[in-house]
Amino acid sequence: MTVSPHTPFTATVLGLPRVGPNRELKRATESYWAGRIDAERLHGIARDLRRAQFAELLAAGMDSVPVGTFSYYDQVLDTAVLLGALPPRVAGITDPLDRYFAAARGTDTVEPLEMTKWFDTNYHYLVPEITAETTFALHPEQLLEQVDEALALGVPARPVVIGPVTFLKSAKDASGAPLRRLPELVPLYRDLLSRLAAKGVAWIQIDEPVLVTDLTESEIDAVREVYTDLSAATERPALLVATYFGRPGAALPALAGTAIDGIALDISDADDLSEVAGVPALARKLLVAGVVDGRNVWRADLDRALAALGTLLGCAAALAVSTSCSLLHVPYTLDAEKELDAELRSWLAFGSEKVHEVRLLATALAAGPDAIADELAAVRAAATARRTDPRLSDRRVRARLSALDADAVRRAPADERRVLQSERLRLPALPTTTIGSYPQTSAIRLARAASRKGEIDEAEYLRRMRAEIAEVIALQERLGLDVLVHGEPERNDMVQYFAEQLDGFAATEAGWVQSYGTRCVRPPILYGDVARRAPMTVDWIGYAQSLTDKPVKGMLTGPVTILAWSFVRDDQPLSDSADQVALAIRDETVDLQSAGIGIIQVDEPALRELLPLRTADQPAYLAWSVRAFRLATSGVSDTTQIHTHLCYSKFGEVIDAIAGLDADVTSIEAARSHMEVLDDLNAAGFALGVGPGVYDIHSPRVPSTEEITASLRAALKAVPAERLWVNPDCGLKTRGPVEVEQSLRNMVAAADAVR
Ligand code: GLN
Ligand code: ZN
After folding, report:
1. Where in this chain does the record put each Cobalamin-independent methionine synthase MetE C-terminal/archaeal domain (predicted)?
2. Residues 461, 536: one domain?
């Protein structure tokens, strides 16, 4: 069959998840790493997973199928391989698969690439390193194999690659001008286009999500040049450029002005389409309308989507229905959820259900809405039931929130609090502490699994967790730490643990989403008003405090982080949800205080993550997120010391917000950035307690006393001793007990030496 390259398609998704509906790829990959299976077996499992996905998409009526969004670890790393941009330090590893995994996870002798968040999602990608030594070269073998495999199965394959602009802007490039390397990359993409054309591929999708961020005029010019150049190639499939996670704004007319054949737009927020309607050049292109939200779990409002499609129909030469982004960010299918209550389930759509929604909309587009009349009626009924469900509106919570005044987010001035707290706590100079979790030992995981399966009863589970707490307290006393923690043995996850105990959240059984590599998470679903049923942590922390005369620091997760790591409501502003969660956390802090706890840490590691991609949207976000934190932490008396923990080293845009949190003590990741963060904090006028992490917990290496002493001395150059705390970079749950004990011993010795 010969396909004319410009035959438009009508229904697709922008990308696919790959860990497997039951995390098959995760298990296979880990088995490969452990040497239990060989590469052949791993490839076989991967192939079966892809094949099942292709079959599902074809059966669901997709007439164009993304190929190449499969990955053994990460799609950005795959692109680095495709473009010959792996760092030289892995070049010595001859086996391509092992070289790939070495770049992803490191080996005994090789440092892995850094990891960071993919735009404003919870997915972490590996950051390519581009240096003057990087010589790009096309290595398309893996992509071409997948294309062959799909074509052989009769799949209308649409290869997907990350575009050169997004690739370079997502990389680490010491020159500070990453797009200068575009002229080296464009010929490689042209080469790829001609190879795909030779295979008879009809369309290629080039992902450029970076177009939805703020770009300078010269960057937009660069985009125009790249796509003018690529579309001028004579041997090529039809070219679809995909943007997602927002709207491309000024980049849209630039892109549409080139001779590419199609543009994918994120239409999940369909409120204002004027910006799209105002681009006449779209009239010559296929518009792939991402009207089905690819990254949240709510069932699509089909009426609204159809209205948007109706508007867009007049703007483009042809229209295809799609998801707003890859389905990488949502679970595979609702079918796996047996326990979810029927009502809630009828409001949701996971991956397979979203594919079905795309199909329905494409059908309605082709044959009119009557063709899907039954489905439209069902969706409307579910939406009405959802709107009127009593769980969506808790009158008490709403009354409390509307009664709040400015005092609810205000404490006494920080220096007054400092005096009161130091009288109460009587801590030594340079107090030592940890960030909360201690190693999650196999005993802990076994106990949790046994309790979930009903093999041990509640009392036995409690007994085992208390034994863990007692051990961690004894260890900390032995080590001579000043502020102790209970170690968080009872927490499967710092968000899920709270979500399970709050009204308004639902948990899934198999709603796994890839976080990075083989690590998957099951984000809770926030569907209703949030209320705390009962104290959530007081028994555990109170028990820990009963075992020691040293202060035990209560440990809570902050409202922003709870939202960032959940699927959130789409029927009210995120700021309203944040305030509701904040109230629940506030009640918990007050209960901890009543139980005699004098120090409470409210973790906000995700504060930076939710930061909007567009600068113009950032101030409003920072205002409500800081307010929510303060609402959560201002209910206690001034003698109670509030800590927070943030774990990213590049503070940039959020530095002022950190001061705005007004926490008495802030612990932050700093070891890898060599304490530079302290200068940034000083420059922002930060004058509260600070605990810059004195060693990196991401590696099993035990830091020496001398090394930590040097770190502390460096910190003292920037922060006066009265404000300086001594702690590791982050929680210790991923570390082994032996390294933890040695590292903390050295940390305490270093604090002693510096005192
Ligand atoms: N208290 C948490 C812990 O120690 C904080 C984790 C985090 O910052 N992500 O595990
Ligand atoms: Zn952390």
Report:
1. 430-752
2. yes
Report which bound ligand comes closest to the CA of 537.
1
CB 723 within 8 A of CB 744: no
- The strand pair at 525-532 and 129-130 is best described as unpaired
User: Is the shortest distance between the CB of 605 and ligand 1 below 6 Å?
Assistant: yes
> Are the beta carbons of 137 and 191 closer than 8 angstroms?
no
Q: Which atom of ligand 1 is nearest to the CA of 494?
A: 2
668 Cβ closer than 6 Å to some ligand 1 atom: no
Please indicate, yes or no, if residue 19 is contained in any of the structural domains: no
Same domain, 499 and 353: no
- Residue 405 annotated in ligand binding: no
Q: Please choose from 444, 645, 697 the residue to mutate so as to test ligand 1's pocket, defined by most ligand atoms within 8 A of CB.
A: 645
Q: Which among 668, 730, 734 is the best mutation to test ligand 1's pocket, defined by most ligand atoms within 8 Å of the CB? A: 730
Are residues 494 and 374 part of one domain?
A: no
Count: domains in the chain: 2
Are 375 and 498 contained in the same domain? no
In the residue annotation, 698 being an active-site residue is answered as: yes
Which one of 326, 355, 389 terminates a domain?
Answer: 389
Give the residue-averaged pLDDT of 84-113. 94
Quick check: CB of 437 below 6 Å from ligand 1?
Answer: yes
Asked whether residue 3 is domain-assigned, the answer is: no
Structural domain of residue 325, as residue ranges?
24-389
Q: Which residues pair with 692 in a beta bridge?
A: 668
Residue 427 and residue 295 share a domain: no
Domain-located, residue 18: no
645 assigned to a ligand binding site: yes
Q: Do 335 and 474 belong to one domain?
A: no
CATH number of domain containing 45:
3.20.20.210
The answer, yes or no, to whether residue 57 has pLDDT greater than 50, is yes
What per-residue confidence (pLDDT) applies to 594?
Answer: 98
In this predicted model, what pLDDT tens digit does every residue of 126-175 receive, in sequence order? Answer: 999 999 999 999 999 999 999 999 999 999 999 999 999 999 999 999 88
CA distances 686 to 51, 277, 323, Å, are 55, 46, 43
β-bridge pairing 203-207 and 157-162: parallel
Please report the pLDDT score of residue 671 as a whole number: 72
Residue from 6, 43, 356, 698 carrying the catalytic annotation: 698
Instruction: State both tokens at 156.
Output: 């209308």
Distance 731 CA to ligand 1 centre (A): 4
Distance, CA of 654 to CA of 657 (rounded, Å): 5
> Does residue 333 share a domain with residue 474?
no
Among 357, 389, 421, the domain boundary falls at: 389
Q: Whose CA is nearest to atom 1 of ligand 1?
A: 436
* Contact call for residues 336 and 510 (beta carbons, < 8 A): yes
Instruction: Quick: pLDDT tens for 313-356.
Output: 999 999 999 999 999 999 999 999 999 999 999 999 999 999 99
Q: Looking at the CA of residue 645, tell me the nearest atom of ligand 1.
A: 8
Direct distance between the N- and C-terminal alpha carbons of the chain, in angstroms, rounded to an integer = 79
CA distances from 314 to 267, 370, 571, 702, 732 (A): 15, 20, 29, 63, 56
- 144/678: higher pLDDT: 144
Asked whether residue 8 is domain-assigned, the answer is: no
> Is 0.85 topped by the overall pTM?
yes
Choice from 603, 609, 644 to test ligand 1 binding pocket (greatest atom count within 8 A of CB): 603
> Which string of DSSP letters, residue by residue, matches 205-274?
EEE-GGGGS---HHHHHHHHHHHHHHHT-SS--EEEEE--SS--TTHHHHHHTSS-SEEEEE-SSTT--H
Judge whether 488 is annotated as a binding position: yes
User: Does 645 sit in the ligand 1 pocket, CB within 6 Å?
Assistant: yes
- Do 421 and 339 lie in a common domain? no
For residues 205 and 171, is the Cβ–Cβ distance under 8 A?
A: no
